[in-house]
Amino acid sequence: MAAIAVLGAGVMGVTTAYYLAKAGREVTVIDRQPEAAGETSFANAGLIAPGHSNAWASPRAPMILLRSLWRDDTALRFRLRFDPALWRWGLQFLANCTTERNRRNTLIKLGLARYSREQLIALRQAERIAYDEIVKGCIYLYRDPVHFETGQRAIGFLKAQGYPFETLDREACVRLDPALAPAQDKFVGAIYAPQDESGDCRTFTQNLARICEGLGVTFRYGTTVRGLERKGDRIEAVVTDRERIAADQVVIALGSYAPQIARDAGITLPIYPVKGYSLTLPLKDKAAAPTLGGVDEANLVAFARMGDRLRLTATADIAGYDTSHSPKDFATMVKVARELFPDAAHYDQPRYWACLRPMTPDGPPILGATPLANLFLNTGSGHMGFTMACGSSRLVTDLMLGRKPAIPLDGMTLDGR
């Protein structure tokens, strides 16, 4: 039986291991953390949101980045630094900020996100896996009438592809989620995506890792990947700080750290880390907490209820591999949470987190084959890792097993960007 090494035990790596193990393959997952979902999957937004598939590289993005050079209150922040990888990535990002490329990249992301949601539902039903999921849709709130009209035009493009949305006035918002009643004077309306979902990515990943163990998957936690041992056009082994692990096939699912390992195999990945911040609060009054996940579009603050906790995330900080943070980085999230759900949470008991999202300059992830015959990629999903995980991993698994993928991978492969 072929031995497969999956590098990374985040949501991408664990879902990849699951599909490979279900196909009867011998799988070893390697991760430097002491448990699954210890980094980017630890405390992310929790939204499974094909309805939020718009590519970040857009005609509006360059001006937002320019303003961020002297302001700290923008949702997308760029920090000047001497880093050739950053400048290469930045130039590629700007090249994708045309209307034509934005639409192409958005379509690719939407197609993958919809397929991935279908795979998540199938997995959830097959394994009866629980992760504080809410499957009643997501709500995207607008505070300004002009911005609301812009948002409706933007979803018109996604609606034309057959993805359902509803436009709600503020009274309809409150009927949909009564927790918004105290804040109804703060917004003018919302866009509701009934097929979007939310849930705890860490809980999902850890529960799925336990299912994987039952399928025979071996997890090497607390083990750092140092490099790849290459011979000709193949990888013969993964070199770690503990041992050499021979493998017939290797999958790189290391998120923002994938370029460092891929470089060892002579492969340059167009991925750069974008730091995101998350705030988790214990609930004080469950009746006052949201029953749907969503986004405050004016501040680009995402929110999701996860059992007895409220999760908020915001900000995309293009600042290299720094994961440091301070309470001021979360001020906007706290302000938005207090405005929308004033009685829901214990605001004096915050848990702060920052992680690195593996962003490609165009938006779609990098999946599948590489110039090396037995090396595969599952990375670059950016802020939509949970949304895209099951679909991406199923596609990569199909390619590894010589099966025809269910959807085209145009625009998602290393050589087709």
UniProtKB/TrEMBL annotation:
Keyword check for Oxidoreductase: yes
Keywords recorded for this protein, A-Z: Oxidoreductase
Record-annotated FAD dependent oxidoreductase domain positions: 4-399
Organism placement in taxonomy: Bacteria, Pseudomonadati, Pseudomonadota, Alphaproteobacteria, Rhodospirillales
GO molecular function, one term: D-amino-acid dehydrogenase activity
Name the record gives this protein: D-amino acid dehydrogenase
A cellular component annotation (GO) from this entry: cytoplasm
GO biological process, one term: D-alanine catabolic process
Family in the record: Belongs to the DadA oxidoreductase family.
Record NCBIfam families: PRK00711.1
